[in-house]
Amino acid sequence: MRAAIVTAPGTVQIAEVDRPEPGAGELRLRLEGCGVCASNLEPWAGLEWMTYPTPPGDLGHEGWGVVDAVGAGVTGFAPGDRVAALSYRSFADYDVVPADMALRLPDSLAGHPFPGEPLGCAFNIFRRSDIRAGQTAAIIGIGFLGAVLTKLTSDAGARVIAISRRQESLELARHYGATETIVMDDHYAIIDQVKALTDGAMCERVIEAVGKQWPLDLAGELIGFGGRLVIAGYHQDGPRQVGMQNWNWKGIDVINAHERDPAVQMRGLREAIEAVASGQLDPTPLYTHRYPLDGLADALDATRDKPAGFVKALVMFA
């Protein structure tokens, strides 16, 4: 099979490698596609703790496809079933996954891309956010996660203030239900605008979905007394400082909303499948850029550089 190998920072090679065989309790998937995650950018940039080359297909964890073979002891799946899965070497034609980390996709989603991991992640973040009707929630960073969270938060009856750098991202937020939008360009001007929009009370909920220092600082300023600050950004490129004096004075809850319990991860994936299949959520406008496997380097560069109109890249397999 073909598999992508990152051989050095900013360099990817497509190699022919042995197709993996499913072990006991595993499925082999013939992948239809795999989303590109912002968490791929640290290995792509070459952070000091990375080693190269990466294993074949490594970094790809947003795959979906068709069951190709089942290992011993697997029940509930058969070759031909179309599934979303939480696997980790899906920048390749095939991947293997424990059967309990895959969910069958309904027929209504046939032909539609389904990067299950980030969709499930959004639903888990939303649950941890404890959004309630009537609250004001600021969402900082309107990329893929921020847009889905805007939709879920708006549907829950909360007022959403969307904050992002690009005007097109703010338009996307309005499409998904944001009531107010603010350009993320001036720290103190943003604070003043949110203060005016909330009569000085600030926000009951703030979701930081960027993964950088400044948005984290901003989140601490926008949260109101006794509120909940939810960290959805992926802060894995180095240490962060936090305004503990401010956090402590306000008596806020701080939630790191990335789930690592497989059962909870699968709960989010299950909720995402149900929401998309029922029409509650249409993520189609978020899949803005598609690349073949041999275009993975371009997909990673686009995820980093965010060209005009970019929200999320998908690597698609013929």
From TrEMBL:
Q: What is the name of this protein?
A: L-iditol 2-dehydrogenase
Q: Where is the Enoyl reductase (ER) domain?
A: 7-315
* Sequence similarity: Belongs to the zinc-containing alcohol dehydrogenase family.
Q: Which InterPro entries match?
A: ADH-like_C (IPR013149), ADH-like_N (IPR013154), ADH_Zn_CS (IPR002328), ER (IPR020843), GroES-like_sf (IPR011032), NAD(P)-bd_dom_sf (IPR036291)
Q: State the UniProt keywords alphabetically.
A: Metal-binding, Oxidoreductase, Zinc
Query: Which cofactor(s) does the record list?
Result: Zn(2+)
Q: Does the keyword Zinc apply?
A: yes
According to the UniProt entry, its GO molecular function terms are: oxidoreductase activity, acting on the CH-OH group of donors, NAD or NADP as acceptor; zinc ion binding
Task: Extract the Pfam families matched here.
Answer: ADH_N, ADH_zinc_N
